[in-house]
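As noted in the main text, all predictions were made from sequence alone. Below is one such record, for histidine kinase.
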Amino acid sequence: MLGRRARLRWVHLILGGALLMPYWLLGTLVVAPLVGRPGMFTGSLAVQFGAYGVALPLAAVTALFPPARPMSVAVARTLCGVPPERFADGPAKSRAARARTAGWVALHVGLGGLVSGASLALPPFAVSVMALPFSAALRESEIGRFWSLDQRWLVYGGMPAGLAMLAALAVAAAGAGALLARQAPLLLGPTPADRLAAAERRAAELAVRNRLARELHDSVGHALSAVTLQAGAARKVLDKDPDFVREALAAIEETTRRTVGELDAVLGLLRQGEDDGELPGPGLEALDALFATTGRHVSPVVRGGDVAGVPDAVSREAYRIVQEGLANAARHASGEPVSVTVVRGEDALEITMENPLPARPPVTRPGGGRGLRGIGERARLLGGTAEARPVDGTWRLAARLPLGGGDR
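Prediction:
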């Protein structure tokens, strides 16, 4: 009852009493004329408790405003000894959250007013009672006459009675503080609407993180695969074909320069900690440069209209799908020819990539990679489909992206 937590809760109750005071003073202006006791300050218990009854609903009404919950949570989190994660964050927006906050404020200021009043009045009275055995003047005073008891009782019973009063005050304050601590998570904790909003925020944050991860995986993964292939090919013909080595080094330079730019853009979003819904990146117009840096074994075909008219979101995702498909072919079927077909239809963009299956199964990473999974996620985000599987001795990647997917 006298530990640090109990003392903090007692301070919390005193703050509640202080918050109640303006409402209580307003209540006395309403109640005093009704009981025939004009004036704000009066000793009438009827006026005091009547004003108390008026003050509680007034305090509850003011707590219906959304900012009341963050302020109450900030104080309760510090003084009530309740784990911080059990409180709700942010203003109360729903009707249920505001009603709970109003109930908390009424409970806080109600108990705080009673404990504050007792803390102000009871200790001096208890000390006076404890002093009765040592002062004849006190026994003849109003305090002694208040008890209307035999003088011998006042001499021998004053000390136990005073100590009992102080103990009762400590027990009442500790009990009121414990009651507030039990009710705080119920009244200031998250409502179902708050939990749903928090879940939606976490899902949105996770979607942004996954999206950024896909961007990094596709751009950096493709660049490393392309650079590795070009460097390996250049090393093999270093003394025989200097022209090819120059082309390979130029391709490596262009690939790394483009990838550094894309990496800077994505890391810029990470530094800002937000997503504006439009990740930067190349689109279908950059396919020629991508094919040029990938190698001589790529056979691209683009038909069915001007790809420049494809919506930006579809164009970016289509570029990343082609890029990841080329990176997978480079990793698992290095040196094999790859055919890339991009067809723009009336309502969708279709991408087909094929390469011969290698004679020897490729070495895969433990748990598999994330490239094909990322391709599927990109297609689904636009309302499309994607699949990758062996067909008649070739590996085929096929994706269909609705042209209206850029509006999603």
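Residues 4-190 form one domain. The CA atoms of residues 211 and 279 lie 9 Å apart. These features were considered when defining construct boundaries for the mutagenesis experiments described in Section 2.9.
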